[in-house]
Amino acid sequence: MRIVEIVILATALAFAAWQIYRFFTRGPKCSSCAGCPLNCSSRREG
Amino acid sequence: MLGRTNLEGDWGMGPIELALAGNPNTGKTCIFNNLTGARQNVGNWPGVTVEKKEGTIPFQGRSVKLVDLPGAYSLSSFSEDEAVARQYLVNNSANAVINVVDSCNLRRNLYLTLQMMEAGANVVIALNMMDEACRSCINIDVEKLAALFGVPVVPTVAAKGQGMQEVVQAAVDRATGPRRPFKIEYGPALEKPLAELEKSIRSTAGLDKKYPSNRWLALKVLEEDEGVIEEVKEVAGGRAILARAERARAALAQKGVKADSVLIAKRYEYIDSLVAQCASEACSTGNVLSDKIDKVATHRLFGIPVFFVVMWLLFEFTFRLSGPFITLVEDGFSRLGAWLAIALPGMNASGLFTSFVVDGLVAGLGTVMGIVPVLVTLFLGITLLEDSGYMARIAYIMDKPMRVMGLNGKAFIPFLLGFGCNVPAIMSTRTLESKRDRLLAIIANPFISCTARLPVYILFASAFFPAQKMPVVMSLYFIGLALAIITVKVFSKVVPEEKDEVFLIELPPYRLPALKGVVTSLWEKISDFLKRVSTVILAAVIAVWALSSLPYGVEYASRESLAGQVSSFIAPIFTWAGFANWRATVALIFGVLAKEVVVSTLGVVYKAGEGGLGAALAADFTPLSAFSFMTMTLLYAPCIATIATIRSETKSWKWTLIALVYGFGVAWLLSVLVHQVGSIFS
Predict the structure, then answer these.
(1) Which conformational region is residue B83 in: left (phi greater than 0), alpha (psi within -120 to 50 degrees), or beta?
(2) Which chain A residues contact residue B546 at CB under 8 A?
(3) Residue B537: left if φ>0, alpha if ψ -120 to 50, beta else—which one?
(4) Where exactly are the structural domains of chain B?
(5) In Å, how far is B40's CA from the nearest CA of chain A?
(6) Which of A45, B109, B554, B650 could form a disulfide with B38 if both were Cys (CB 3.0 to 4.6 A apart)?
(7) With an 8 Å Cβ cutoff, are B348 and A2 in contact?
(8) Cα(B539)–Cα(A17) distance, rounded to whole angstroms?
(9) How does pLDDT run across B266-314, given as a tens digit for each residue?
């Protein structure tokens, strides 16, 4: 397997692991602001 | 801990804090967005904001902090969102409060103004929706109102951005000036006990000067404000003051005077005299159109059928408009997958890498992206409904059926929000005053079909019910809603009843949605979805592809893969429901991360990158088992974020677990029922 493929696959797996870790550790945050009545700090400003 | 009013008002060139306060649905968040450039969610219905939000305004080289408060009708705290506003205002944290007032409802709105002024707040009135007042022929003498009230009054039209700088200028001027005491005379019957209470408060070290003013505290104690009474009880000498207030109330009652009623009546008397001097009555042509529409939309017999028709129109609009675009996106990804399946090996890419790109990325993400046209049209429809003012009518007409089930119409608002996302919907139950109602609304909410579940319905309905796509999808929404209402009824038998809550909801006039607002809101919703695709959904796609490819050397997406082995172990529990195949099971497992992942997972494990997913599904599903699977997806478990929200809002692992076990039990029973009963007829 070419080195480029290994790098891409490893990066993808690391990205997935990081995203899933972040998903489980960032607490009870919603994933979408659509229709949200809350003014939480994660909402973008400006 | 309550703060002390800064009566000196010496703020020099330091930071200034301004707050936006007012009745629900007066345009506070719209002003906040205009001034700070933020994109808070706004809507033409009460309860859009339930937490306070902070932003900054660059103003003449100064740092001005702006706090947007949830709407409140008075400073007597009832629900959690109102308590947020009241606590902040009573603390007097702001140097000035911009009181956003609906020009068409001066009398009711000024009640809060009066209470804030009594609490010592530096008030500036933003007389909002002046254009609507003009349309209703309401003439307001702004200068006279300012002179009579003794506060600056600035006319504004927040939806069009008019009067924004003027209102900030007035608030900054007010913030940097001295605070002016404000007092209403409540008549000799009440002034005497008030003076005695003030005297007692002055001599109680823990209470003297602790609240905005001693008179304010005396008023609150006399009118039995629950929040204040709880705080006073904790202070040394506080109970003696409460006892004195109790005696005063008893003495007044003997004379036929009810203290809290007199206080309210006197405040309205003050407001009425003021409004009579500076505002004309609305002409009869005022909100004639709104009234005419409401005669049908809120009719006790036709209201609910009209609601169903509106929902039908929403889905009809969504499916008709998005249909051709779905085909376009799906075909695009299908062609891309087919091309890459040939092109990559041609470039000497390994089989594993080709599988990653074609079976993983293209199949997984392509299946999810196919839903974007539906979401755009559905979100557009929802945004138009939100801005029109119809949402408040839905809550109103649902009051009766909800009461039969053990809740009131206010609890229907979280259900409506749940059609978007269950997380904010569960958080919005904070607007409910009763803890019991909150718990019932939280447990029932995951049954409401959020938009993340729509991709699953679209996929299966298109594949197995192409001619009846819309009725099938709509039926799932109604099954979810019906089960949510039944759940309320079931749990209302278990959770002890509290005193009945009165349901009051303001029905705002119908408004034509503003183009800018619709576009901003639509973009917000779509960009949120795309953000999910590029984060958690992409991560799940990669994880499912990896689990379907391991252990190394195994045939991709076979029963022998890791995903296949684990799912094959669980799959038999779905035998009676008609979809005991491991691919469906792995999709349900990963779907707990986020419901769109059900579709992307199916795309990955069915190798949809090289052909259509619909055709691949036909090998494992019949129309009946497809409907049973959709029912399971609708009900089986909320996503992780919703589970965490149930835990944080109920503050109970017990109720979180009950909600999960109950949800899965109902989902399993119903999908088994669908398949078994359906099998008899098919």
Answers:
(1) alpha
(2) 13, 16
(3) alpha
(4) 16-176, 188-255, 304-681
(5) 7
(6) A45
(7) yes
(8) 7
(9) 999 999 998 888 877 665 555 677 888 888 888 888 888 998 898 888 8
Percent of chain B predicted with pLDDT > 70: 92
**Residue B177 to residues B16, B35, B71, B113, B405, Cα–Cα distance (Å):** 12, 22, 26, 19, 54
Contacts of B52 in chain A (CB under 8 A): 39
Domain B16-176 shares a fold with domain B188-255: no
The answer to whether B241 and B194 are in contact (CB under 8 A) is no
- B539: nearest CB among A9, A19, A37: A19
Q: Are B50 and A37 in contact (CB under 8 A)?
A: yes
Question: A25 to chain B: which residues are within 8 Å by CB?
Answer: none
Are residues A28 and B647, on separate chains, in Cβ contact within 8 Å? yes
Q: How far is B8 from chain A (nearest CA, A)?
A: 32
Residue A13 and residue B539: Cβ atoms within 8 Å? Answer: no
E strand or H helix that includes residue B440? helix B435-444
Residue B368 clears pLDDT 90, i.e. is over it: no
Nearest residue in chain A measured CA to CA from B345: A1
β-pairing verdict for B62-68 and B16-22: parallel
Cβ–Cβ gap A39/B52 under 8 Å: yes
Q: Is B451 on the interface with A (CB under 8 A)?
A: yes
pLDDT of residue B462: 87
Asked if A39's CB is within 8 angstroms of B535's CB, the reply is: no
Give the pLDDT of residue B45: 52
Q: How far apart are CA B145 and CA B139, in angstroms?
A: 12
CB–CB contact A30 B68 (8 Å): no
Amino acid at B638: P
Contacting residues for B229 by C-beta, under 8 A, at least 6 apart: B221, B242
pLDDT at residue B479, as a whole number? 94
Question: Which residue from B424, B529, B644 is facing A37, i.e. has the nearest CB?
Answer: B424
Across all residues in chain B, what is the average pLDDT?
A: 84
User: Does the ipTM exceed 0.90?
Assistant: no
What are the pLDDT digits (tens) for B181-207? 788 888 888 898 899 998 888 888 777
Q: What architecture is the B16-176 domain classified under in CATH?
A: 3-Layer(aba) Sandwich (3.40)
Put simply, the answer to whether B421 touches A1 (Cβ < 8 Å) is no
What is the C-alpha to C-alpha distance for residues B133 and B509, in angstroms, rounded to an integer?
12
List the domain boundaries for chain A.
1-27
Residue B498 is predicted with a pLDDT of 64
Give the model's pLDDT for residue B6: 36
Q: Is B235 on the interface with A (CB under 8 A)?
A: no
Residues of chain B contacting A44 with CB distance shorter than 8 Å: 38-39
Interface contacts A/B by beta carbons within 8 Å: 137
Contact criterion met (CB < 8 Å) for B539 and A46: no
Q: Looking at domain B188-255, which CATH architecture does it have? A: Orthogonal Bundle (1.10)
Helix residue ranges per DSSP H, B550-639: 562-570, 582-591, 596-605, 613-617, 623-635
Output the pLDDT for position B9.
Answer: 39
Q: What is the pLDDT of residues B418-432, one digit of tens each?
A: 887 788 788 878 777
B458 or B499: which carries more pLDDT confidence? Answer: B458
Q: What is the DSSP string of A1-46?
A: --HHHHHHHHHHHHHHHHHHHHHHHS-S--S--TT-----TTS---
